[in-house]
Amino acid sequence: MMPAQQEQYFRVLVSMGHCGSGKEITVARYMKGYSLMEVFRDASSMPRAKSKMRMGAVRQIVPISYDEFMLGRQSETEDLYLQRVGGVKHQRQRSIRTA
Question: Any idea what the Cα angle at residue 39 is, between residues 32 and 71, rounded to 5°?
Answer without folding.
Answer: 35
